[in-house]
Inverse folding.
């Protein structure tokens, strides 16, 4: 058996592929090998008798050693396979440390061995990132399933906008956003989620996105804009912004692109339903006559009034605080309310009366053969039949000889506006015209 001299053992200690140190019971270093000194970029005189083991660690590892490792050493006499980070001139150096506290009459001796652990730390970090990416992918899939189901159940553009924005924020690191929808030749915010009450979407970039020249536009990685487009028709635009100091990555961008695409398809489907409903003369949501069909009947009744002198009243009825109801209960609940209301009111009005959904939460009621007193009585019966504690306001106008439908509706609308301004949940009647005697 070969006898290795003390110089050889010393070299093995000093130049081992791992770092060694010894310290007294208080943790003050009494010996350290060259390998560890090389990692630290220090000389022995900088450490021995001057520093403690904990002083060699980066701040985070230092706190962990004091709060966890020291307790284990005093309880079990050892602390094994703990990932720590040494402070070095080149930054933090991950090591796997094993420390042993050997009892003795002088309080004992602490010995620590450290192995390079950068590869293991990198592997564990990659594993955590992979698991995090898998979890986020699973959550995004759930959000996409949610958005698909909800969008299939609503034909209200504002409801579609709300779902698209809500799910876009839930599935990414964005914290605020807006959806603009086309309103004729103009664009209006249909859904908005501020994070501090002051954030506004970047107008110039949003107008550029409306041209649908690019499916997704990024502004410095923090702001993302996507048109809600289907079959070449741009119905709206989605804008989201990440929290300060955050950016949205490629996975976020892909998710936003999918949300915008589904939103565009849902808005196109809603548009086509509106077209079909107009052609059919029936409101798709409530089953009531739509505006076009109601206008045609009202014009015929006014022509009949001019020939016979039989009175005709028109009422414009609007649900109070309907937007707040939607915001509180959700757009599907708002749709259910409109359907329930239409069904209940059909059972209250006469067979000759014509109730129509005129737009949104506004209804038009044609009352042939009714003057103002009888018209007020009819609307009072409707107000008593409101579901779920909701209320409505109404404006009533009696047609004058020779008055056009547009003028009659304008007077009824003005009376409805007065009812709203007077506190809602009431009826206001339009004053008679010069050709019409007071009721």
């Amino acid at each position: 058996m070969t006898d290795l001299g003390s110089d050889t053992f010393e070299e093995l200690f000093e130049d081992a592929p791992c770092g060694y140190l010894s310290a007294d019971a208080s943790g003050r270093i009494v010996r350290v090998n060259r390998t560890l000194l090389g990692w630290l970029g220090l000389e022995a005189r900088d450490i021995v008798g001057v520093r403690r083991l904990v002083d060699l660690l980066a701040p985070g590892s230092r706190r962990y050693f004091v709060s966890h490792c020291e307790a284990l050493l005093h309880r079990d006499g050892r602390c094994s396979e703990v990932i720590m980070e040494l402070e070095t001139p080149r930054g933090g150096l991950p090591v796997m440390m094993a420390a042993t506290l050997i009892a003795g009459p002088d309080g004992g001796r602490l010995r620590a061995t450290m192995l390079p652990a950068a590869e293991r730390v990198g592997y564990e970090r990659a594993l955590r990132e992979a698991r995090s990416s898998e979890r986020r992918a699973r959550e995004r899939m759930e959000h996409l399933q949610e958005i698909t189901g909800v969008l299939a159940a609503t034909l209200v553009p504002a409801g579609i906008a709300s779902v698209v924005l809500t799910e876009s924020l839930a599935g990414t690191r964005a914290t605020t956003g807006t959806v603009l929808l086309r309103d004729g030749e103009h664009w209006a915010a249909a859904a908005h989620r501020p994070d501090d009450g002051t954030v506004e979407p970047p107008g110039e970039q949003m107008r550029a996105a409306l041209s649908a020249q690019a499916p997704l536009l990024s502004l410095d990685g923090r702001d993302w804009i996507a048109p809600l487009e289907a079959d070449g028709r741009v119905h709206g635009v989605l804008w989201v912004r990440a929290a300060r100091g955050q950016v949205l990555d490629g996975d976020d961008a892909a998710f936003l692109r999918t949300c915008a695409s589904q939103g565009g398809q849902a808005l196109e489907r809603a548009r086509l339903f509106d077209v079909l409903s107009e052609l059919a003369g029936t409101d798709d949501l409530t089953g009531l006559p739509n505006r076009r069909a109601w206008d045609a009947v009202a014009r015929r009744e006014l022509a009949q009034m001019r020939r016979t002198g039989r009175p005709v009243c028109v009422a414009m009825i609007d649900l109070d605080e309907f937007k707040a109801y939607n915001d509180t209960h959700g757009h599907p609940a708002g749709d259910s309310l409109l359907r329930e209301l239409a069904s209940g009111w059909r059972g209250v009005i006469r067979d000759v009366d014509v109730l129509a959904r005129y737009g949104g939460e506004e209804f038009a009621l044609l009352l042939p053969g009714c003057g103002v007193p009888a018209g007020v009585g009819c609307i009072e019966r409707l107000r008593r039949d409101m579901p779920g504690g909701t209320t409505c306001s109404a404006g009533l106008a009696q047609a004058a000889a020779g008055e056009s439908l547009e003028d009659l509706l304008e007077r009824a609308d003005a009376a409805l506006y007065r009812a709203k301004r007077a506190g809602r949940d009431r009826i206001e009647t339009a004053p008679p015209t010069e050709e019409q005697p007071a009721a």
Notes: The first strand starts at residue 19 and ends at 24.
